[in-house]
């Protein structure tokens, strides 16, 4: 086989490999943004419950900004440690943009002493969950205050974490685990009566739910930006290179 033919086959094979890798892409995190604003609610106020999600979001347009930045990872984040500010009473909002290719469970270790929200937009639908309790995960993923949220459908998503803290400014972290279900899928009985119809399944360390999952339950990944070129761009570049080579060869 000539060198030209070998190179042609190599380019073709490379393009096909890239196409395959692109099709099998797992969890992609494009961006993570953080905003923190000052609040003046008393320590015992269940702020998230009293305001609701829409009014809570409005605070980020009306209240004094304490911090606004893009994050490389949602790991070990706090007002003092990340933004260099100390204060009593603030709201934090994280917005995560990304894509999933398979059922993916996210875990959030938050310090939301005055409650908070987990909201997911995906495939034209939105699911927002309120937890009005005093949330502090104690920096332990096995803690009962760790919040779990599973996205079962493939596609782009926007994840919003919005919560309120008054006194202690503990660290906040997140991680995810890509899984699959048995062929019959998750049963509504195991997921509880409040399982939404959106294909976005929340739970809070539910043993019956976790027992249905297929995969390594210890293979967690920190929630960090890992964006790659748009899904079709690498294969197109490879195929373009092959096309140029073939034209030159024929010419």
What is the residue-mean pLDDT, rounded to a whole number?
Answer: 79
What Rg, in angstroms, do the CA atoms define?
Answer: 22 Å
Q: How many beta-strand segments?
A: 13
List the total number of helices.
7
With strands numbered from the N-terminus, the spatial order across the biggest sheet is: 2-1-3-10-6-7
Outline type: globular
Class by helix and strand content?
alpha+beta
The total domain count is: 2
What low-confidence regions span 5 or more consecutive residues with pLDDT below 50? 9-24, 186-197, 229-233
**CATH topology term of the largest domain:** Jelly Rolls
Main sheet attributes: strand count, strand direction, barrel closure: 6 strands, antiparallel
Examine the secondary-structure arrangement and name the CATH architecture of the largest domain: Sandwich
Level-1 CATH class name of the largest domain: Mainly Beta
Helix content: 25-40%
Explain this structure.
By secondary structure, this protein is α+β, with helices and mostly antiparallel strands. The chain has two domains: 3-23 and 233-250; 28-222, Jelly Rolls (Sandwich), CATH 2.60.120. The chain has seven helices and 13 strands. It has helices at residues 3-23, 47-51, 53-62, 79-83, 188-191, 207-210, 233-250, and strands spanning 28-38, 65-71, 90-100, 104-109, 111-112, 116-122, 125-131, 135-136, 147-151, 155-165, 173-178, 200-203, 221-222. Strands 2-1-3-10-6-7 form a six-stranded antiparallel sheet. α1 (3-23) runs antiparallel to α7. The two termini are 20 Å apart. 27% of the residues are buried.
